[in-house]
């Protein structure tokens, strides 16, 4: 899932712009070095991270302290285009695992 339109001004509310990644598999997924890409060429490489079966991870655009179920890209500007974009999650070999488009 993608929450691309943050409440208010996206530039002032970066952490309300986020992706939700769900492990719908039956085993723990090692997401270390997986990539999130958008259609404008933005790339974020996930840090060392595992996601248990059935768990979700919210990946916020801005800065913050990682906690259970959420991490932060550390971007100083919005990444997801409100008027349309495509976000793709790829494994460490570059194989597309999931994609979401809007607009």
Can you give a write-up of this model?
The chain has 103 residues and is mainly beta. It is built from no helices and 10 strands. The chain is globular and about 40 Å long. The model has no long low-confidence stretch (mean pLDDT 96).
Give a topology summary.
Blueprint lengths: L1 E2 L14 E5 L6 E2 L4 E4 L4 E3 L4 E2 L4 E5 L9 E3 L12 E6 L5 E7 L1
Parallel strand pairs: 7-8
Antiparallel strand pairs: 1-2, 2-7, 3-6, 4-5, 4-9, 9-10
Helix-strand pattern, N to C?
EEEEEEEEEE
Please summarize the sheet with the most strands: 4 strands, mixed
Widest beta sheet: strand line-up: 1-2-7-8
Number of strands: 10
Shape: globular
Nutshell version of this structure?
Helices cover 0% and strands 38% of the residues. With 103 residues, the protein is mainly beta.
Descriptive key words:
4-stranded antiparallel β-sheet, 4-stranded mixed β-sheet, 0% helix, globular, mainly beta, 103 residues
């Amino acid at each position: 899932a993608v929450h691309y339109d943050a409440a208010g001004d996206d530039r002032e509310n970066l952490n309300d712009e986020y992706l939700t990644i769900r492990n719908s598999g039956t085993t723990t997924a090692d997401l270390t070095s997986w990539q999130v890409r958008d259609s404008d060429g933005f790339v974020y490489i996930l840090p060392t991270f595992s996601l248990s079966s059935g768990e979700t991870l919210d990946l916020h655009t801005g800065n913050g302290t990682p906690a259970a179920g959420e991490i932060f890209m550390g971007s100083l500007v919005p990444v997801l285009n409100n008027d349309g974009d495509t976000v793709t999650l790829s494994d460490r070999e570059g194989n597309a695992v999931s994609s979401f488009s809007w607009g």
